[in-house]
Amino acid sequence: MAEITVLEDDVSLSEPTMVEGLPGIGLVGKIAADHLVEAFDMVHYANVHCDAIPKVAVYHEGDASLATPVRIYADEERDLLVLQSDVPIAPQAASQLATCLAGWFDETPVTPLFISGLPHEKDDDVPRLYAVGTGGGEAAAADADIALPDEMGLISGPTGALLNDAVEQGRRAVCLVVESDPQFPDPEAARVVIKDGVEPLTELEVPVDNLVERAEEIRNAKEQLAQRMQQGDEESTQAQPLRMYQ
């Protein structure tokens, strides 16, 4: 079964950007997506049903309602969507999830904004960010003055499968690749993604003071999910260099 069930029919969107928050290296996309949902008080717009998604139900603090672990949130005023996931996606399920979402992408005038962490040992420097794209997404990244990659690489995991489908179908998409901690949740990398990637691409202003101030709290809250991904057989979304000459 592959279906996206819209819960809020009265939400009107024009040509929204959708920020993808599937768990990956440093949980960068997950942290950024969760922050956007909270900062803009976004509406739970739709549930994602797909055989590739673990059959679990989730609930949240202060809310008695159960929901699917992968959901879409919406902000009508900002013409913004966020794909939020509370579970990792197994590598063998990545292509199926891509197929599940691809049909909806074809029916909805949405520009997906994918996020991938590039494993990098932490130092005092601000994490580097660059953008790649397809179907016109690369032009949008250039217009937003986001840096080009400085080496050849690939993007794997669920995000890689979604990007592969976008390339195959000629669908517009952008992917933000940011240096991130390969072992622990990385709120600083998520901040860079939001300020240097999401903001210029969407022309929105996103408050991140709370994200910076609560970095340790966020890191601790996401630690269990990060450990599950490291201990299990999930191939988390990540970018990695392809060095042809070594």
Give the tally of β-strands: 12
The percentage of residues in β strands lies in 25-35%
Radius of gyration: 17 Å
Strands ordered across the widest β-sheet: 1-3-6-7-2-8-11-9
Can you identify the CATH superfamily?
A: PAC-like subunit
CATH topology: Rossmann fold
* Mean of all residue-level pLDDT scores: 86
- Would you tell me the structural class of the helices and strands? alpha/beta
User: What gross morphology would you assign?
Assistant: globular
Percent of residues in helices comes to 25-40%
Q: SSE order, as H and E?
A: EEHEEEEEHEEHEHEHHHE
Organism: Halogeometricum pallidum JCM 14848
InterPro entries: Proteasome_assmbl_chaperone_2, PSMG2_sf
Pfam families: PAC2
Protein name: ATP-grasp superfamily enzyme
How is the secondary structure organized here?
Blueprint: E1 2-6, E2 17-21, H1 28-39, E3 43-50, E4 58-60, E5 63-67, E6 70-75, E7 80-85, H2 94-107, E8 111-119, E9 129-134, H3 137-143, E10 153-156, H4 157-169, E11 173-180, H5 187-202, H6 209-213, H7 215-231, E12 238-241
Parallel strand pairs: 2-7, 2-8, 8-11
Antiparallel strand pairs: 1-3, 3-6, 4-5, 6-7, 9-11, 10-12
Helix pairs in contact: 1-5, 2-4
